[in-house]
Amino acid sequence: MTEPMIAAxxxxxxxxxxxxxxxxxxxxxxxxxxxxxxxEAVAMALRQNNVVVVxxxxxxxxxxxxxxxxxxxxxxxxxxxxxxxxxxxSTHTHVAPSLNNDLSFNPETGGTDPTYVSAVQRCLLETxxxxxxxxxxxxxxxxxxxxxxLGWNRRAMFNxxxxxxxxxxxxxxxxxxxxxxxxxxxxxxxxxxxxxxxxVVFNFSSHPNSMEHGLEYSADFPGEARRTVGRILDxxxxxxxxxxxGNTAPSVLDPFDPSQPWRGEKGLIRSGQYLAEIALGVISSxxxxxxxxxxxxxxxxxxxxxxPWPHPEELAHPKANPLNEEVTRIYxxxxxxxxxxxxxxxxxxxxxxxxxxxxxxxxxxxxxxxxELGLDIKHWSTAEVTFVxxxxxxxxxxxxxxxxxxxxxxxxxxxxxxxLKVGAGEQIVETIRIMLDRAGCGRT
Length: 444
Fold this sequence. Notes:
Layout: E1 6-14, E2 34-35, E3 40-48, E4 51-58, H1 65-79, E5 86-90, H2 114-133, E6 136-146, E7 152-153, E8 155-158, E9 163-165, E10 174-177, E11 184-191, E12 197-204, E13 216-217, H3 220-232, E14 238-242, E15 248-249, H4 264-284, E16 295-304, H5 325-345, E17 348-357, E18 360-364, E19 368-369, H6 371-380, E20 385-389, E21 398-399, H7 402-407, H8 424-438
Parallel strand pairs: 2-13, 4-5, 12-14, 18-20, 19-21
Antiparallel strand pairs: 1-3, 1-6, 3-4, 6-11, 7-15, 8-9, 8-10, 11-12, 16-17, 17-18
């Protein structure tokens, strides 16, 4: 075996609370009535010489800035490693309790439970500590599979110049889907000196919301994918990272398929096992060990202004699209608070990371990143395997494309989940290109 040039450690822990907390991810209040499957923290620690970086995933909808910073501060105090070297990712399940109070469109949708937040923070830090304790010399291996049948663009275009989330080809005036999809399923895994796999990380670009209206705690299909891979590999920890999925979802929208094979209980199982099969296929293909893998972390924090409330005639205005009475009421509440939101929140801090691990690069952002933007980053990257990872180190809402802003729809309507200035997504792409260049895996 090639002499290991890097150390890695992996760990996972469960933090599932008792039923009864409010769930995040919808306009309306949902109280959890049960537990379908565990919510987990999963960590990967990497060390080379004096450089240590830890990536940890949480089964939550989105993160909150203060939560991230508190975890990073304690990480630095306890381990003596710079806090920004702890990257925290939310898998974006829509059936877990909230860590972020600011995402309630109105108070009736619930809020955070301080006891739960503390428990998640404690679990995260314990998982990170365990991953660091397990650091050992490894070889790293990577490849990229293709998931051709899951993760579809969810924005349908219509002849009147508008787009609609979850539109479909049976609707009058349907003219096609607004954007592409990304079938890539990048995989990286570690082997110890005896050749045993010690941990796996993989990534896919789809909203993980097979069960988005559910009432039981669940990691959704990322949890099923992790469990399937882990079970086949004798229980090794597995990280699932959600890719550029701001406008992609499990739903098959065109051609219109009423059966929706990737939704519901059966869809969750089918989705997770499908992705696991592809990830395991990459592993079983035995990609060679990376030769002399380097470990570097590039970090940039952008200050991005919030956008003003749009004029009623603009398609980015909620009134430009038909809304039901309850949704209309909620957006009126949002509009009434918008000036105050600009005062207290603008500019937003947008943390970007480019983590290079030999032939692999992880490009992270804290937004719901449109798939077109993720593809732009992949086209610029010269790494053999590129992970584009959204919803990491905070939450800054949707980052739609310029085209989406021209056509309207949910993702561009101003709200607590969509507030960055027009063009923020393209600004993030350009910044990450520069970071990739600095990391030695860009095209300049």
